[in-house]
User: Fold these one by one.
Assistant:
Number 1:
Amino acid sequence: MLSPWIVHLNGPEYGVGDVTGATSSFSNINPGVHNQDYFYDTGPSLEFLRSRGWTHVKLPIRWERIQASIYGPLRGSEVELLAAFLDRAATVGLSVIVDVHNYGIFYEDVAGEGVRRAIGSTMLPLSAFSDLWSKLAREFGGHPAVVGYAIMAEPQEAGGLTSAIWQQASQAAVEAIRTYDVASEIHVAGFGWSSAAHWTHYNRRHWILDPVGGDLIRYEGHHYFDSDWSGEYFMSYSDEVAAASAERPAGRYGDPLWNRVFAEARDFIGWLQAHRVKGIVGEMGWPGSVNPWQWAELGEVYVRYMHGLGIPCVPWFAGAWAGSEDDLRIYEGTEPMSTPRPQAVVMERVIRELSDRRR
């Protein structure tokens, strides 16, 4: 991968509701309606992102939409939508990381209701997951915009998935991709919601063996700075500082919140360094409305620190359907995006400064 400047571009994964519940109105038979329930960004928004310095987008898609039945062919209408998006990205000079955004599960229609199936269960065998990735890599691996795959967002315990099963499933997916694409990066999410803060608790060992060798695997952790790691930021900055102060985290910063955040990051960093493997913070972000510059100062130091270690940070999130109610969105404006929010101001400054050093 030529550049670490990646932004999460949401839209194709929308229209699901409760993403991990036992049942859902969403399913492989009821995947929603394009441009009503979910959305692929248009050319002007992609041009805007490229003009702001971004070189890559991480594009979340849903398994149930791209493959209507396990082991079945890819759904033609969704293949066309994704291919058209990739064409638009290539036209403006953006590279794409395709992200299956499913949390380790698949909603199968049963009598008109989506029923959760976990990878590795009887109803969703490991081979179904590798079949999906075999078909995605065969279909899109040669596209000039595609430079990577994030094989699954935030696998976790819902439906009985375990860390051991996830390690088997992710290895199988890597092998399936390599049948058709030997050059792209593959991002392998950690178990337990991919939490960077709890990385070593859920992921004891380095487990992926890439059949083509090289250095094309990144382990993917997610890191939000709020005390429950949800990214919801229910508490104010000052309340988060107070909560961190009660924990008395060790560190070199005067702010206990900073000490907690960087202690969490070191759990992930230390694991990567011990196993001599590469990593990526595949989701991270902070609020843009309440105490925006306090959060932004922490975020900027964090991103620069990670970049210095060769760990890209992917902000959550951009997209023309990023509603005003979500304070983590980094740009305002719809069709196209148009105005940077405080988080984007920080990220764009870091992009400019670090890119200039490279020249």
Number 2:
Amino acid sequence: MLLVAGCAHGGPDLETRLGRIAGHESTKASIRWPYDIERQIRTGIRKPGTNDFGLRVDETYAFDFEGAHRRSRELLAALEAGRDPLVRATGDHERHYYFAAANEIMPYRLYVPTTWDGRSRLRMLFVLHGATRDHDFYFDRDGGMLPQLAEREGWLVVCPYGYRPNGGYTGLSEQDAINVYDRVVEEYPVDRRQVYLFGHSMGGTGGWHIGTKYAERFAGLAISAASTRPDGFPFERLRGKALMVIIGTEDAPRTVAAAHAMVDALKEHGLDPTFLEIQGATHITIVRMAEPTVFEFFGQRSRLTAE
């Protein structure tokens, strides 16, 4: 079930205090975030103990209200002191924005290398999570492998929430993902020629959809354990892209067959995908086993682009 700890309504002066501060809308959204979640629970928009909330690494639907409120108070104090600790911040942090189409505040998770000098253009990996998960899961799983790789390789990595854990990256889920993409590349000096997408399972199927519909935004796609069928697929949208299809031999037979069929179809349409089939990998373990290769694959492509 959803663990609600430290749940409290925003003080009557919260909006008054925020109203005295000009700008800083993203950080203001982070300040409002725990109160907006409480509103959604109170009004039935989200229901505790359901897939309205993403499963964490420990397989619970926990939401740390106490920690979120503490962070909210810290951010408000910083803004009132004339400092915004989130704008162009480095390291691992959660960000938020007001999603007008849904009338909700949406989170996303961001990692910016601590070695970034604040000016240099950044390569970006856009990560789409799988079903039942959220923006935190791929940052937290496997001992924090994703942010560790981002730090080591010097990449900015971002994972959107996708509106709901099972949103599927269509409709509001798709719009949320693209909103996050736009916000990040507007705030940070991202090299638009070196933005890549990695998606697993539902995130892989969503990755094929978003990666073709918004093909101009991505230099390449790495799609893991996805069930997309090649029938009617817009292959022509992927010409010139770096493509990797990933599957574990111990995944469900239908998913393994879908990966092979997609690779064959890509080749039949004149594309040149790299096929990473990992012996013994399951639907769960494939991410940990594939992520270092994904960074290496896109890193090689980005070096060629930079030359």
